[in-house]
Automatic annotation (TrEMBL):
Xref: Pfam families: ADK, ADK_lid
Protein name listed in UniProt: GTP:AMP phosphotransferase, mitochondrial
GO cellular component, one term: mitochondrial inner membrane
E.C. number: 2.7.4.10
NMPbind, as annotated region: 37-66
């Protein structure tokens, strides 16, 4: 699909709701789309043993959110370096903003470039489905590609389909840390949704699987931004 106007999309959803999977599927369908996942950015920093990575790893391992200003700086810097702070740019954010304060900081920055978000979609997946999914989740850290042993297994067990590199289990996908992340999500969601609802750009798509959610998400994008 080609877009008739620039799309700047935020995917909201509990950890394990399939934001990464929906992102990969949208990227395949919409050639001009780019994406940034705040969690992937942080995991890269941890892997590279950078200064921000060393700060991030203790927050991540406890399932706690990093400070709002630090996160905003990391993501906005990345948008800038990628050349996406322009009114013509089309991109998708996954995992940031996660609090209404982050949303305000981002909005102020984007306003300066006339590149504000213009669609926010909440992925609404039942909690029972999410908990089951997490146990089977594996990731390829360098690309952020996500696999599920049940629904979306890699072609070769334990290996990324594209690079053949090893897949890993996220250290924060344990029952204990995951429970905290889910609580964290629930406690910050309402004000964040209110922030975007007030801007008139919030939509919700519901479903139990990524196969059910994706056509709904894609239709929504097509209806609002697509040509064909
Ligand atoms: P995710 O991959 O989106 O589940 O993020 C993994 C972890 O990275 C979270 O549990 C947080 O510790 C941290 N993180 C990611 N995005 C943010 C954000 N927008 N604000 C604060 N912390 C974040």
């Amino acid at each position: 699909m080609s877009l008739v106007k620039p799309l700047r999309l935020l995917l909201l959803g509990a950890p394990g709701s399939g934001k990464g999977t929906q992102t990969s599927r949208l990227l395949k369908k919409i050639p001009q789309l780019h994406s940034i996942s705040s969690g992937d950015l942080l995991r890269q920093e941890v892997k590279n043993k950078s200064e921000i990575g060393s700060i991030a790893s203790s927050y991540i391992s406890q399932g706690k959110l990093l400070p709002d200003d630090l996160m905003a700086k990391l993501v906005v810097t990345n948008l800038k370096q990628s050349g996406w702070l322009s009114p013509d740019a089309t991109w998708l954010l996954d995992g940031f903003p996660r609090t209404s304060i982050q949303a305000e900081i981002l909005n102020n920055d984007l306003q300066n470039y006339k590149a504000e978000l213009n669609l926010v979609v909440e992925l609404d997946v039942p909690e029972s489905v999410i908990l089951e999914r997490i146990e089977n989740r594996f990731v390829h850290v360098p690309s952020g590609r996500v696999y599920n042993l049940q629904y979306n297994p890699p072609k070769v067990p334990g290996k990324d389909d594209v690079t053949g590199e090893s897949l890993t289990k996220r250290s924060d996908d344990t029952a204990e840390v995951f429970g905290k992340r889910l609580q964290q999500y629930k406690s910050t969601l309402a004000p964040l949704k209110e922030y975007y609802a007030n801007k008139g750009i919030l939509e919700t798509v519901s479903g139990e699987t990524s196969d059910i959610i994706f056509p709904k998400l894609y239709d929504l994008v097509k209806r609002k931004f697509g040509a064909h």
